[in-house]
């Protein structure tokens, strides 16, 4: 039997990178998947590229009305949910001396507020015994110049996993954080505000800091998320699983 046979999973930030790879892996393991993201065209292309039960719902996690619409569709189509991968995130480079209020607000609106209400609004649909996985980052324990707001937002995500583990224990809903290191996805070039040349230089620098000597693959992150989702990880809750090639250990 497949690991996620018959389970209903919701993935935010599901149109590319880690979210896309995880959606594919979940479907391969038998799940019925709902993905959401801000880019309609990319979202629809992603859904069409996956062979299986995938529903695409355009939305921005920082807009609470979009979250309400997402979960209304989940309820109408599936009636409940078993797994939430709260993966949507944002991070642009801005040194402390140059950071603006808009930069700070956008980072926290998506990574903290958006994730908080993504989970809160999912709870009425959750079956007891479900699994919630939050995307944090290796930055939550590292000092990363130019990304201090991003790192702080991801440290908040780490704490959410700890607190919600205790809040949801009576429903046997497990909450874990997953912290990727530098991953080879389009995000470094498309969401950080770096030029292509700067993104290439940053990728090389990140890889040099990883003991394994390379950036990770989105499929490797998807494998870790898939480990945390089903019953085989039933005694794991409240952890921050580092999937970073050893970067946080050195």
Automatic annotation (TrEMBL):
Entry's EC annotation: 1.1.1.47
GO MF terms, alphabetically ordered: glucose 1-dehydrogenase [NAD(P)+] activity; quinone binding
Class of enzymatic activity (EC top level): oxidoreductase
NCBIfam families linked to this entry: PRK07231.1
CDD domains registered for this protein in UniProt: SDR_c
PANTHER family: 3-OXOACYL-[ACYL-CARRIER-PROTEIN] REDUCTASE, SHORT-CHAIN DEHYDROGENASES/REDUCTASES FAMILY MEMBER
Swiss-Prot/TrEMBL keywords: Oxidoreductase
Lineage: Bacteria, Pseudomonadati, Pseudomonadota, Alphaproteobacteria, Acetobacterales
SMART domains: PKS_KR
Pfam families hit by this protein: adh_short_C2
GO annotation terms (biological process): fatty acid biosynthetic process
The organism's place on the tree of life at top rank: Bacteria
Domain Ketoreductase: residue ranges: 7-181
Family (UniProt): Belongs to the short-chain dehydrogenases/reductases (SDR) family.
Name this protein carries in UniProt: Glucose 1-dehydrogenase
